[in-house]
Specification:
The chain is of the alpha/beta class and about 290 residues long. It contains seven helices and six strands. It is globular and about 75 Å long. The N and C termini lie far apart (about 90 Å).
């Protein structure tokens, strides 16, 4: 009888260990299910399923034992913790602005920038999206862009969330380095922490009680958006400067209930006339349309 009890306990412990290993390393099972290659996936290519620290399997009390009632409790808690719907996050870069003066207060949209914002607002309106939330950087060019877009999508301006975390900055030293842009090292530490905090605030899978797909519009800046894209897709964030997006462009990311992230649009401006396509900042009023 003692030997039988030891055997049962050993088998139970083995099953628990196997189950926990699958929780901790789901990529192993997924990898063998879709590929015939025996070559292991590079560590940089593996998807971190708990990137937002909201993996349901880690949000519930773990199994104490392998008894049926304990497994039923765990499965019930797990089902309640699972998100049911997707979150769509649409990012819009501000329109073209004139970089003159010593402060953000003087960085207003150009006439072309205002036209860009209007076209973007019209495009978003044509998509027929019912917006759950609109968030805008507190910088002047983003605020002006957001105001123009809000007029087109008929969204109540009183409900807009103005966020200082979304202000433009230097998120992380880029790779490869570039010679024409060399902010002080302290700027990366200062801006990087803030921009990373913004990412963690707005990018995560849905809450379990979300009963429909949600749509969030964020009006912000080129550097911030490019960094968000790299972080959300789990690409090396140091590669953010390899991406170029136009003024008033639309970038659309979807976070599925499983936590997987996909990109639908990246810097889309195909709805604008060619003369309005810009991505660099004019610093001379003579060059402004």
């Amino acid at each position: 009888m003692r030997k039988l009890s030891s055997l049962v306990c050993g088998a139970g412990a083995g099953l628990a260990a196997f189950y926990l290993s699958r929780i901790r390393d789901p990529q192993q099972a997924a990898h063998s299910s879709w590929t015939n290659s025996e070559k292991p996936v590079d560590a940089c290519g593996l998807w971190d399923s708990n990137w937002d620290c909201r993996d349901p399997r880690l949000m519930v009390r773990p199994l104490k034992n392998t008894l049926p009632e304990e497994e039923n409790r765990f499965n019930s808690d797990l089902e309640k913790a699972k998100p049911k719907k997707a979150r769509h996050i649409i990012l819009v870069r501000h329109g073209e602005y004139l970089d003159v003066g010593e402060s953000d207060a003087t960085h207003h949209l150009t006439e072309r920038g205002r036209k860009q914002a209007k076209y973007t607002g019209q495009r978003l309106s044509e998509l027929g999206i019912q917006w759950d939330k609109v968030i805008a950087s507190t910088m002047v060019r983003a605020q002006e862009t957001a105001d123009i877009i809000l007029n087109e999508i008929k969204y109540d301006k009183e409900k807009v969330v103005n966020c200082v975390y979304l202000r433009e900055g230097a998120p992380i030293p880029p790779q490869p380095p570039v010679g024409h842009w060399k902010p002080e090292a302290s700027q990366f530490y200062r801006d990087g922490a803030r921009i990373e905090a913004a990412f963690r605030r707005y990018f995560h899978r849905a809450y379990p009680d979300q009963d429909k797909e949600s749509y969030t519009l964020i009006v912000g800046h080129g550097n911030v958006i490019r960094y968000f894209v790299c972080r959300a897709l789990q690409f090396p964030p140091e590669g953010w400067l390899r991406i170029s997006i136009n003024h008033a462009s639309i970038t659309w990311l979807t976070i599925s209930p499983s936590g997987n992230v996909s990109i639908k649009y990246l810097g889309d401006t195909g709805f604008m006339p060619v003369p309005l396509l810009t991505n660099r900042i004019p610093r001379d009023a003579k060059n402004v349309v």
